[in-house]
Amino acid sequence: MVQAQSVRQLSFIQAVNEALRQEMERDESVFIMGEDIAGGAGRPDKEDAWGGPMRLTKGLIAQFGPERVRDTPISEAGFMGAGVGAAATGMRPVVDLMYVGFLGVCADQILNNAAKIHYMFGGKVKIPLTIMTGIGAGTNSAAQHSETLYSVFTHFPGLKCVVPSSPYTAKGLFASAIRDDDPVIIFNNRQLMGMRFDDDVPEEPYTVPIGKATIAREGTDITLIGIGYTTRVCLQAADDLAAEGYSPEVIDLLSLSPMDNAAILESVRKTRKIVIVDEDYPRCSIATDISALVAEEAFDYLDAPPKRVTPPHTSVPYSRSLEALYVPDRAKVVAAAKEALE
Amino acid sequence: MVQAQSVRQLSFIQAVNEALRQEMERDESVFIMGEDIAGGAGRPDKEDAWGGPMRLTKGLIAQFGPERVRDTPISEAGFMGAGVGAAATGMRPVVDLMYVGFLGVCADQILNNAAKIHYMFGGKVKIPLTIMTGIGAGTNSAAQHSETLYSVFTHFPGLKCVVPSSPYTAKGLFASAIRDDDPVIIFNNRQLMGMRFDDDVPEEPYTVPIGKATIAREGTDITLIGIGYTTRVCLQAADDLAAEGYSPEVIDLLSLSPMDNAAILESVRKTRKIVIVDEDYPRCSIATDISALVAEEAFDYLDAPPKRVTPPHTSVPYSRSLEALYVPDRAKVVAAAKEALE
Amino acid sequence: MVATHTDLNTDTLLWMYETMVVIRRFEEQARREADAGKLRGMHSSIGQEAVPTGICAHLRVDDYVLGTHRSHHHCIAKGVDMSEMMAELLGKATGTNKGKGGTMHIADIDKGMLGANGVVGSNIPVATGVALSAKIRGSDQVTAVFFGDGASSQGSLHESMNLASIWKLPVLFVCENNRYAEATPFEYAVAGGSVSNRAPGYDMPGVVVDGQSVLDVFEVAREAVRRARAGEGPTLIEAQTYRYQGHFGADDPLGYRTQEEEDYYEARDCIANLRAHIVGSGDTSEADLDAIDRKALSAVEAAAKFANDSPFPEDDELTTDVYVAYP
Amino acid sequence: MVATHTDLNTDTLLWMYETMVVIRRFEEQARREADAGKLRGMHSSIGQEAVPTGICAHLRVDDYVLGTHRSHHHCIAKGVDMSEMMAELLGKATGTNKGKGGTMHIADIDKGMLGANGVVGSNIPVATGVALSAKIRGSDQVTAVFFGDGASSQGSLHESMNLASIWKLPVLFVCENNRYAEATPFEYAVAGGSVSNRAPGYDMPGVVVDGQSVLDVFEVAREAVRRARAGEGPTLIEAQTYRYQGHFGADDPLGYRTQEEEDYYEARDCIANLRAHIVGSGDTSEADLDAIDRKALSAVEAAAKFANDSPFPEDDELTTDVYVAYP
Ligand SMILES: Cc1ncc(C[n+]2csc(CCOP(=O)(O)OP(=O)(O)O)c2C)c(N)n1
Ligand SMILES: Cc1ncc(C[n+]2csc(CCOP(=O)(O)OP(=O)(O)O)c2C)c(N)n1
Ligand SMILES: [Mg+2]
Ligand SMILES: [Mg+2]
């Protein structure tokens, strides 16, 4: 079998890399900052030793040089704040926060400055800052290196939050984020970086709009909502459900703030049942947010209570035997869906 | 009219102060740390110049000395981390984080260490740390000094979160928090500090249990849920609703993590309607958490969709004209309740 | 517009004198507005006028300043309109920030004032980024960030000094050491009793200057700004100064400091000092200076009138400006 | 149990030799386990054995050590059981942390090891609090916190140095300067090219020591621990050392450093160095040291067998230990 000519497959990492490269080519006010995003800093013969811990920025320093592909000391508060200041004065910085748990050391800059400046200053200063960060368990990295936490950022007015689920959406959301005039945080799930995808990733630059969900699979019996990695889990579960004769719809949320309430509500009004699948901690989370939205806005349409499949209210364990129980998987989604369906 | 003999009225501030004093008397491993909790540090003749920005710690240094009533430099990450280390090694520190928005500069210590150490270390180290922090808008303090944010802390497994609503509950929750073997954060609303209360605050030490809500007013038609300051708002709204012939029940939540799900569900199964009144930002919040809980666990009992009264998805404005529109008030609660009731 | 002064000529002297007097009158008026209940928790800069004045004398409109919770003097020295500032303090629609920011967040990007900031230490990394932006854009703009002695204990200062040093950024770290952070004495909180002593550890010049002498500040700033503009990197300046009032107005500073100390600093008042110097040096008469004083006073009175007469924001302003665009 | 050594006698020398050899064998075995796919992302301490060994020689069981993401050597030097450590690396129920923490979070409070920590710089304030606790409790316990050259750029170090200095806390800040933070060279990231140079700004002794010489580390630590125990306050120690392997195992260090540099440091290997010193000084024969080598190897083999034979945690362990009690 020959592959359809039009399909251009990239890995998640290649898609991000291509988006960064194209946006830097497009607009010279874009620059990238972070730890080891090149590596070998200050040694021209050793440059690009790493290209980022996940290799997302590999090769960029060769094209754009160390001013625009800027390795930093381990000073997240310092360089995140520097991103805010640069964004306020004509640049479009992309700041890499290696893991989302490191929010802890730079939260002030994101939550008190990036999120609030536009409002506090009466709309007169813009912060076109993009933050990219690694999320998710499943890599035996223990409690501090496996968090998801996008719910925390979504909580804060002034921030936009997007979660790509595939190479195609990653490339398009990166382009949108970088071109956006507000601070946008892109949450990249680390399990997605190791996965194979069949989607066609066009070579030319394109955007995926911030604030829009997509229907990853159409159906009529139940709505499964996924976010990033859990969209893949939902699609697997949907296969299982379809094999049992059900018609599941899968929404790939993509954007948490702004959130595409209309798409969620429309789907639920059709299917009358919903399972929200999320890897973040369960309390005060995007999963409760969606559940509340549906309960409040589609109350009369629901045939069954909204359901959530999330980890327990527990830090992420190291042991792979425990971690396997932690992350939502297709079996748990299928089980939850069947409870709602029956 | 003579006041009933047994009633001992204290202000919110006095109640907190008394709890701290009594717990320090009870257990010499308790000590307090924070900025200007005494004031005049290093000048014995000028000690206790402030007693804390809200005067919560006034007079304590005279009784317990500067080792146990310890003024700190402005280094929240430093002294919050010091609280974690002291708690791990036999002390029961109470750390004052002046305003909850300063979470930003010490989030790593709270979220990555205090919250996770017990779990990461396999249960072998305890962190009996108490953090007290000021929350709430309504004092013309603008976006960085008016946040509520307890939803963020509730998100994290490993932390306990309590919100006193009165002098009585403040004294009892402080005692419980300090005696608790887990990290507990007490959120003190600044508007409560200026209010008059009629409740009886016993002189002898007592505890208010962490994890239990109380029924602040019994009723049968609708459940209003308040948290700290919004409990007062709910009680006012309840008066208005009662005047119109309704029978509202008011739950004073008191504890967000653990949360008294049973009390909420029991009330809703009775009244079949709920309005959640909360001052934190609306997305991924305790309000969505409660709404989701009720929708999922009391679905068949609800006569109307759960309702939330919260600020908009907006930073806190400075101008008093705008701020007055920001914080939930009795009129908004009454309006929401009537929508549910009608 | 703020002039850029490099020589200490009469123009410069008079600009500095007027700037300091305007700041003081502004702060007195702001305190009256606060006492009348029109705003709360205002951090007065009276006593510290010389520090931003001596620094900003060297800055162009397109250079940047970033401040703290106590920043009215930084704003005025950088050329922000006083009427809009006063309106901001009163939460009015005509304020610099449309009433949304208030006393701790005044900003005016067109004047290069990139904002006061209520979180202690928080603006230091932001300023470092502003300097980085200038460097990447290939501009020769200079950034000055002000912070207190208390703020020097925040990790953000040290991360920023390190970044600015390794990247040779055009930034001035200006510590206004007024000896207190709220009610906490400097000598208790700052190990070694000096902020500027930390600079050598970061391979950066650290200078102490008498912050009550605008002329001394002017001289120190000249070299720091020159260095920055020439791409030679950052400087840490510790200006020794004093706030005459309490931390935020309602507190009694004699609870934690002494009458003698207050007297000592007031006797070395920056405005009186400069006035004596100007009169002593000949060109300018007492009467000329009195005229400046009167002009300052009436400008401040006009600002107060403008602010008080201005409307509060419309209700729908509550939810605008959260985002540039939010579909 | 870790002995407390104050004299450099034969006992001390042999304890240090054995400790360093055990660390190296442990790390070699851990790498084999990782290569076999039983754990991921392990930060090896090979090359850096001398630093915690020379420091911990002076520490009692009830003194405290806190570490980083690269902490196996700290744990072993502080007396943590190797079998439980290896079981922890494999995520087993018998691990120091019941399999919940893993390689970056090994802790054993009974041995005074208060934990590795995966967030760079995060343990420095915690250690400061441990020292504060000792001071308030009136104990003479000493705390040592290890961190890398990369970590020195975190604000937490500076906040903690200031606190420890003003409160005269019994803490050693020990920077293991192995010249790289991941792939970032030290001389790029650290202004002024020295961590210890920052100490004077905080009114604290700052010492540089050859971290490949356990004897030098031992001498420097003697004075720092004495100072701390006597209540004279903290010391910053910068130990110049080198990690022989990549940052976490999978990376090729020659991408960012040179063969010459690697050769230079390996030629100054801390174990070979000490072995030569011991043999040269007479009391102990090569055969005696060979016996120690064999003992170390078989102890590590036993640890690996214990770890591999141990069960994984029961499923319900997923949700225990989140709280001490959660109604
Ligand atoms: C991170 C943070 N911690 C604490 C505060 C509360 N606070 C406001 S001003 C202040 C004192 C600041 O002292 P200093 O830096 O010396 O400035 P000064 O007030 O003397 O101008 C404190 C502790 C704050 N705003 N931010
Ligand atoms: C706050 C934070 N930022 C970044 C990282 C990712 N990271 C892990 S180890 C490391 C390098 C640390 O370098 P150094 O402190 O010199 O220690 P070494 O690895 O050389 O022992 C980095 C950047 C982290 N774990 N925590
Ligand atoms: Mg000060
Ligand atoms: Mg290193």
Which helices and strands occur, and which strands form pairs?
The complex is a heterotetramer, with two copies of chain A (342 residues) and two copies of chain C (327 residues).
Chain A (H helix, E strand, L loop, with lengths): L11 H15 L3 E5 L25 H9 E3 L4 H13 L3 E8 L3 H12 L2 H4 L9 E6 L14 H6 L4 E3 L4 H13 L4 E6 H4 L20 E4 L4 E5 L2 H15 L4 E5 L2 E3 L3 H11 L2 E4 L8 H12 L9 E3 L10 H7 L3 H12 L1
Parallel strand pairs in A: 1-2, 1-3, 3-4, 4-6, 5-6, 8-9, 8-11, 11-12
Antiparallel strand pairs in A: 5-10, 7-9
Chain C lengths: L9 H26 L14 H7 L7 E3 L5 H6 L4 H8 L33 H15 L5 E6 L6 H12 L4 E7 L2 E2 L2 E2 H4 L16 E5 L3 H16 L5 E6 L18 H8 L3 H12 L4 H24 L18
Helix pairs in contact in C: 1-10, 1-11, 2-8, 4-11, 5-6
The site of one magnesium ion has 6 residues of chain D, from β4.
Describe the structure in brief.
With 342 residues, chain A is an alpha/beta fold. Chain A has 13 helices and 12 strands.
**What is the CATH topology assignment of chain C?**
Rossmann fold
| Distance, first to last CA of chain C | 38 Å
Please tell me how large the radius of gyration of chain C is. Answer: 19 Å
Strand order of the largest sheet of chain A: 2-1-3-4-6-5-10
Report helical residue fraction of chain C: 40-55%
The overall average pLDDT of chain C, rounded, is 96
CATH topology of the largest domain in chain A: Rossmann fold
Poorly predicted runs of chain C are none
Which small-molecule species are bound to the chains here? thiamine diphosphate, magnesium ion
Instruction: Choose one word for the global shape of chain C.
Output: globular
Tell me the helix content of chain A. Answer: 25-40%
Largest interface: A-B, 57 and 57 residues
Q: What's the CATH class of chain C, please?
A: Alpha Beta
Give the overall average pLDDT of chain A.
Answer: 97
Structural class of chain A: alpha/beta
Text of the CATH class of the largest domain in chain A:
Alpha Beta
Alpha carbon gyration radius of chain A:
20 Å
Strand element count of chain C: 7
Q: What would you say the CATH architecture of the largest domain in chain A is?
A: 3-Layer(aba) Sandwich
